[in-house]
Amino acid sequence: MKELKELTRPNIWALKPYSSARDEYNGAEASVFLDANENPYNTPNNRYPDPMQRELKNMIAPIKQVDPDAIFLGNGSDEAIDLVYRAFCTPGVDNVVAIDPTYGMYQVCADVNDVEYRKVLLDENYQFSAEKLLAATDEHTKLIFLCSPNNPTGNNLDRKEIKTVLDDFQGLVIVDEAYADFSDAPSFLADLERYPNLIVLQTFSKAWGCAAIRLGMAFASKEIISVFSKIKYPYNVNLLTQKEAVTMLHRHYEVDRWVKSLLEERTRLINEFVTLPCCRKVYPTDANFFLAKMSDAKKIYDYLVGRGIIVRNRTNVSLCRDCLRITVGTRPENDILLEALRNFEV
Ligand SMILES: *Cc1c(COP(=O)(O)O)cnc(C)c1O
Q1: pLDDT value at position 29?
Q2: Strand, coil or helix: what is 322?
Q3: Is 241 in the pocket of ligand 1 (CB under 6 A)?
Q4: Which among 335, 301, 339, 338 is positioned nearest to 320, based on CA atoms?
Q5: Distance from the CA of 308 to the center of ligand 1, in angstroms?
Q6: Closest listed residue to residue 300, CA positions, set 284, 282, 276
């Protein structure tokens, strides 16, 4: 990997971050807070939240077996995705490389930040080759985006190829593990110390059942995390979110139960799906959703909408012609979907 200083935008490297009242007071015992122009009434919402989310990070660290300094928390993983562009990519100069198809936010953030986005098509099994990906890079490539299990295809990417990218790429590699809780594959969190150029993204939005609270996690070396901390909004994770996340972490056994039951439902749903006359093929999945090739995705999508059932039409995405992306729901929800599709006239 190149020096982090060389990978970081010069203005960001030189930046002196905004120092909030709660940054400057560093946690010594105190009971009178007259430093932040807050209202003394209406506890607890009158107080600014901890800008560094220390309590939450201290709870997440042992669960993920990483150091608290290796964690960044943001307003969804989408915040972390935007921050990697703002921290490392000079608009109009630098570029990033990503597999295609994949999660749409990588390209949206590239476009917002005026950074060239280079796509490398997956093969027919939705796998990628490190060699092809690396061939798309040049001296201005700062980031490579990988997503495993990948959205919208559902499959894990080949581990060996990911490791080759981590070994051979001189810039930063983002491995988005939003769906890792549903997969048997080991997380790349265990490889953080081995790869200084690795950034792992995870989220409370999927297996943790907390999409509404907007809480995403990025894990990386503490040097990379300090760059994020420098440019994030001072109070980027609000108090209600921090409190709810702490509550959820105490209830983590529920998450295990949800995952187990969703995986059982996934098997049942797919077994039924492949017998539907309107279904051509279901692709292998390691996530809480699957991609299904249908006789006519647009027609079936519209038909389902007419019955109040919403799935994701991916027919306009690369390599996904006539594919619907189906999220696994509760058993009754999945039954409603199956019943509707059985009644669809091909
Ligand atoms: C859902 C999803 C996320 C989660 O984004 P949040 O902002 O944390 O809700 C991240 N990456 C991928 C690939 C996703 O599908």
Answers
A1: 84
A2: coil
A3: no
A4: 301
A5: 24
A6: 276
Distance 64 CA to ligand 1 centre (A): 18
What span, in angstroms and rounded, lies between the C-alpha atoms of 289 and 270?
10
* pLDDT, the chain, mean: 97
Query: Using CA positions, which residue lies closest to atom 6 of ligand 1?
Result: 76
Work out whether strand 198-203 and strand 216-219 pair parallel, antiparallel, or are unpaired.
antiparallel
> Does the predicted TM-score (pTM) go above 0.85?
yes
pLDDT in tens, 264-306: 999 999 999 999 999 999 999 999 999 999 999 999 999 999 9
Q: How far, in Å, is the centroid of ligand 1 from the Cα of 344?
A: 32
Task: For strands 141-147 and 172-176, give the pairing.
Answer: parallel
172-176 and 323-327 as β-strands: parallel, antiparallel, unpaired? unpaired
pLDDT at 27 over 70: no
**Cβ contact 87:94 at 8 Å:** no
For residue 346, the tally of other CB atoms under 10 A from its CB is 11
pLDDT of amino acid 173: 98
230 pLDDT exceeds 80? yes
